[in-house]
Amino acid sequence: MTVRYLGGPTALLEIGGVRLLVDPTFDAPGEHPVGDRALTKTMDAVAGPDDLGPVDAVLLSHDQHPDNLDDGGRAYVERAPLTLSTEAAAERLGGTVRALPNWEHVELPRPGGGALRITGVPAQHGPDGTEHLTGPVTGFVLAGDGLPTTYVSGDNASLDVVREIAGRFAPLDVALLFAGAARTPLLDADLTLGSAAAAEAAAILGARQVVPLHFEGWAHFSQGRDTLAEPFAGFSGGFHLLDPGRQITL
């Protein structure tokens, strides 16, 4: 399995010959409106859509926030062969966007035979009882014969959700954890995992390898690259804090 980190939540995965793009964002830095508010992007994209090569599917945690799907990402989804996301995203975006409900799965054929199974798993974008403010979000678990079982958290802030996922899939080989402790004027609370919570999530999952995502590139992250290393200092597995554009094989 390879992971190429492209900044923010965006990563290009190749697992068992299947190529997946997580939460596509390609816009330049600047203000991105969300209703009567705005999120500020601070980092340029390190790759454009034409630099990625063919992709089999997009894994979209949600469509309602521009730090997970900006204008360039929306244009990409319009021409992607398949996008898996929430029911709300499928209704709003249409086209080849398909809802993947919690605990249901799809199988994508692998070039050499067999299949990659993609299961939708819960995600909670903030404290209990705030979904009506933040909207629905999903995560994903990837698995297949001879492949590393991989968790993509999406914008999840709940360790109880992580425990529920661990109850079905632990131990995990790889965990891609959205870990910027996102905060906005909408709520006085973390809307995604922070650094210490990400380390606790890795332990709950029994993860052997961890790659943080969505911890830099936007002004509303309250934690990031400089806070991640310490909580993972005692982590027994591999902890990979990638620079934008870097690729790692796990």
What is the mean pLDDT?
Answer: 96
Taking Cα atoms only, what radius of gyration do you get, to the nearest Å?
16 Å
Note the run of SSEs as H and E.
Answer: EEEEEEHEHEEEHEEHEHEHEE
Question: Helical proportion?
Answer: 10-25%
Number of strands: 16
Distance between the termini: 5 Å
Fold and architecture overview:
It comes from Actinomadura montaniterrae. Pfam families: Lactamase_B_2 (PF12706). This is MBL fold metallo-hydrolase. GO terms for molecular function: hydrolase activity. Keywords: Hydrolase. The radius of gyration is 16 Å and the shape is globular. With 250 residues, it is of the alpha/beta class. The mean pLDDT is 96. It is built from six helices and 16 strands. A hairpin with a 2-residue loop joins strand 2 (11-15) and strand 3 (18-22). It is 18% helix and 29% strand. The chain has one domain (2-249): Ribonuclease Z/Hydroxyacylglutathione hydrolase-like (Metallo-beta-lactamase, Chain A).
Question: What key attributes describe this structure?
Answer:
seven-stranded mixed beta sheet, Metallo-beta-lactamase, Chain A, single chain, alpha/beta, 250 residues
Summary, kept brief:
With 250 residues, the protein is an alpha/beta fold. The protein has helices at 71-79, 87-93, 131-134, 159-169, 195-205, 225-228; strands at residues 2-5, 11-15, 18-22, 30-34, 37-41, 57-59, 83-85, 97-99, 105-109, 115-123, 137-143, 150-152, 174-178, 209-213, 238-239, 247-249.
